[in-house]
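Design request, C-alpha cells follow.
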C-alpha cells in the first residue's frame, strides 16, 4: 500500500486525503496550523464566533452535481441544515432598501418598482439571471481513469448551460463596476457592486446570481469550521492521520531511477528536523507560494511561470465585531454608501457593509450579535511596513475604530456597544494559511481567460498540486474539485481504481 503525504489540511487537502484512502492508499496530512480548514475557518473571541471563510456554499443544493462531492467528503450530510435565506443581500440607499431576492420574478418586480427608469437594464439582467440559473459546476472524470463507479456527464445539463456559455464572452468584456454603472438607481448599483468584487468580470457576477436564483448557495449550519471538522472526521474515520502544528519545510526530490535527463521524483517531505518518506506528495497549500517555498531550487515549468506572471491576488482585511445588542431585525447582509468616506492604506472606502449572524444560534451570547466586515484592497505592503515599524497592533486598532464609527452612523444600535473586536490582515492569512501575499482568491477581470493549471508537473514524478490557485477565481468548489482531481491523476499514474463513494 503506497503512502501519500499531503501538505495542508484545508478543503483541498482533506478532499485529497479522503479520496486517496478510499482508493486504497495510506494518507497523512501535514498541517502547519492547530486545526483543519485553511481559509475555510472561523474563530472564537470573547464568547463570539466569527465566520472567517464561507459566506455561501456552491453545491449546497442536492440538485447540483457538486453536492455529491460534498457528501462524499463529509462536508454535508442529512443531519446538517442548510439555510437558504432571502433576500441574500440588501442595501440602504436614499432612505429606501433595495434587495437581491433569489426568486428572479420577485427580483424583477422589486427592481421595477423602485426604479422604473431602469426598465431596459432590469429586464436584460432578469433574462441573464434566468440563463445562468441553469449553469452549474460540472464534475467530470479524466480519460483513462479506472473508476469503481462510472458517472457519465449528463448531456442535457451541458445543453441547458449553452445559452449562458454563449453569452459569457460578451459579459466578460465588462467589470462588475462597469456593469453596475449602467443602472441609474443608486441602490441597484450598490447591490451589483457588492455581489462579487467590483473588478471581477460580469460573467462571475451573473454566475453567482444564477447560483442563488437556482436555489443553490446556502449556508450550512455551523459554518466554515464545523464543515472542515466534519471533513477531517471523515478522513480520520477512514484511517488517515493529520499531524497538526507540523509545517512542511521542503519537498525532497531525487533523480528518477532509470530515467535520463532532468526528470526528478518526489521522495518525501521535510517537516522541521524530520524527514517523512512518501510514495507520492500532494501539495494543497497555495501553489503560488509553494512552488517557491517548498522546493530548492524553486520550480520553473511554463505553467508555473504563467501563474507567477498572470495571477492577480484578491486580498482582504477582515474586521469582526461582537456587539452587545440584538441585531436580528437587520438584514443578514447589509451595505450602504458612507456619509463620510475614509482612506485606508491609500485606498478610499466609500461604501461599507457587514455580514450579520444575529439570527444564527451559537454565534454570540444571548441578546448579542456577531458582525463581520470585509475590505478588499491590496494592503499587504501597508501591513508589512506597519509590522516592521512596530505599529502593527496600533494600525489594527485604528482601523477597527474607524469601522465602528462609520457603522454606528448607519446602525446607531452599534455605538458604544462593541465589546469584542478582531482584525485579520493579509499578514494574518499569510501566517496561518501560508497564502501568497495573504490572498484567498484570484481576480477574474474583464477580457481575462479562465486559466486552469495542470495538477502534475512534467518534470517531477509522484508530485501533484491541488487548491484554490489551480483554477481562477478559486473558492471552495475549486478546492474540493482539485483535491479530487489530484488523486484521480495519482490513480491513473499508478493504475489504481479510483473509488469515490463509501
Amino acid at each position: 500500500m503506497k503512502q501519500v503525504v499531503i501538505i495542508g489540511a484545508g478543503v483541498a487537502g482533506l478532499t485529497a486525503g479522503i479520496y486517496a484512502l478510499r482508493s486504497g492508499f495510506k494518507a497523512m496530512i501535514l498541517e502547519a496550523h492547530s486545526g483543519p480548514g485553511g481559509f475555510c475557518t472561523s474563530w472564537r473571541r470573547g464568547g463570539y464566533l466569527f465566520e472567517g471563510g464561507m459566506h455561501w456554499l456552491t453545491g449546497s443544493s442536492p440538485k447540483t452535481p457538486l453536492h455529491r462531492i460534498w457528501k462524499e467528503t463529509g462536508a454535508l450530510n442529512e443531519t446538517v441544515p442548510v439555510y437558504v435565506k432571502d433576500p441574500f443581500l440588501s442595501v440602504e440607499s436614499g432612505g429606501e432598501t433595495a434587495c437581491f431576492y433569489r426568486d428572479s420574478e420577485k427580483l424583477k418586480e422589486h427592481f421595477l418598482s423602485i426604479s422604473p427608469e431602469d426598465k431596459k437594464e432590469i429586464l436584460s439582467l432578469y433574462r441573464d439571471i434566468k440563463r445562468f440559473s441553469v449553469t452549474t459546476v460540472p464534475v467530470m472524470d479524466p480519460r483513462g481513469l479506472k473508476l469503481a463507479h462510472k458517472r457519465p456527464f449528463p448531456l442535457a445539463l451541458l445543453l441547458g448551460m449553452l445559452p449562458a456559455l454563449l453569452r459569457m464572452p460578451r459579459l466578460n468584456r465588462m467589470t462588475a463596476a462597469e456593469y453596475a454603472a449602467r443602472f441609474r438607481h443608486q441602490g441597484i448599483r450598490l447591490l451589483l457592486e457588492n455581489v462579487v468584487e467590483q473588478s471581477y468580470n460580469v460573467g462571475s457576477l451573473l454566475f453567482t446570481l444564477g447560483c442563488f436564483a437556482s436555489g443553490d448557495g446556502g449556508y450550512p449550519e455551523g459554518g466554515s469550521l464545523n464543515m472542515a471538522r466534519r471533513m477531517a472526521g471523515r478522513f480520520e474515520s477512514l484511517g488517515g492521520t493529520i499531524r497538526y502544528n507540523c509545517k512542511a519545510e521542503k519537498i525532497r526530490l531525487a533523480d528518477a531511477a532509470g530515467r535520463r535527463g532532468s526528470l526528478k521524483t518526489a521522495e518525501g517531505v521535510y517537516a522541521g528536523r524530520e524527514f517523512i518518506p512518501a510514495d507520492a506528495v500532494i501539495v494543497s497549500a497555495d501553489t503560488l507560494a509553494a512552488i517557491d517555498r517548498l522546493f530548492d531550487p524553486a520550480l520553473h515549468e511554463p505553467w508555473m511561470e504563467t501563474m507567477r506572471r498572470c495571477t492577480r491576488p484578491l486580498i482582504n482585511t477582515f474586521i469582526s465585531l461582537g456587539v452587545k445588542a440584538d441585531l436580528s431585525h437587520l438584514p443578514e447582509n447589509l451595505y450602504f454608501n458612507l456619509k463620510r468616506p475614509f482612506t485606508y492604506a491609500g485606498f478610499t472606502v466609500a461604501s461599507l457593509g457587514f455580514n450579520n449572524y444575529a439570527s444564527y444560534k451559537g454565534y454570540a451570547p444571548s441578546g448579542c450579535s456577531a458582525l463581520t466586515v470585509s475590505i478588499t484592497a491590496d494592503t499587504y505592503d501597508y501591513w508589512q511596513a506597519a509590522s516592521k515599524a512596530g505599529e502593527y497592533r496600533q494600525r489594527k486598532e485604528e482601523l477597527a475604530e474607524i469601522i465602528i464609527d462609520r457603522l454606528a452612523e448607519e446602525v446607531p444600535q452599534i455605538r458604544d456597544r462593541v465589546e469584542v473586536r478582531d482584525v485579520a490582515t493579509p499578514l494574518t492569512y499569510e501566517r496561518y494559511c501560508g497564502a501568497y501575499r495573504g490572498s484567498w482568491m484570484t481576480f477574474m477581470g474583464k477580457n481575462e481567460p479562465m486559466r486552469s493549471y495542470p495538477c502534475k508537473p512534467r518534470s517531477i514524478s509522484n508530485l501533484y498540486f491541488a487548491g484554490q490557485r489551480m483554477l481562477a477565481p478559486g473558492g471552495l468548489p475549486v478546492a474540493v474539485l482539485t483535491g479530487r482531481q489530484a488523486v484521480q491523476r495519482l490513480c491513473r499514474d499508478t493504475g489504481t481504481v479510483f473509488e469515490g463513494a463509501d
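Comment from the thread starter after seeing the answer: thanks! The radius of gyration is 23 Å.
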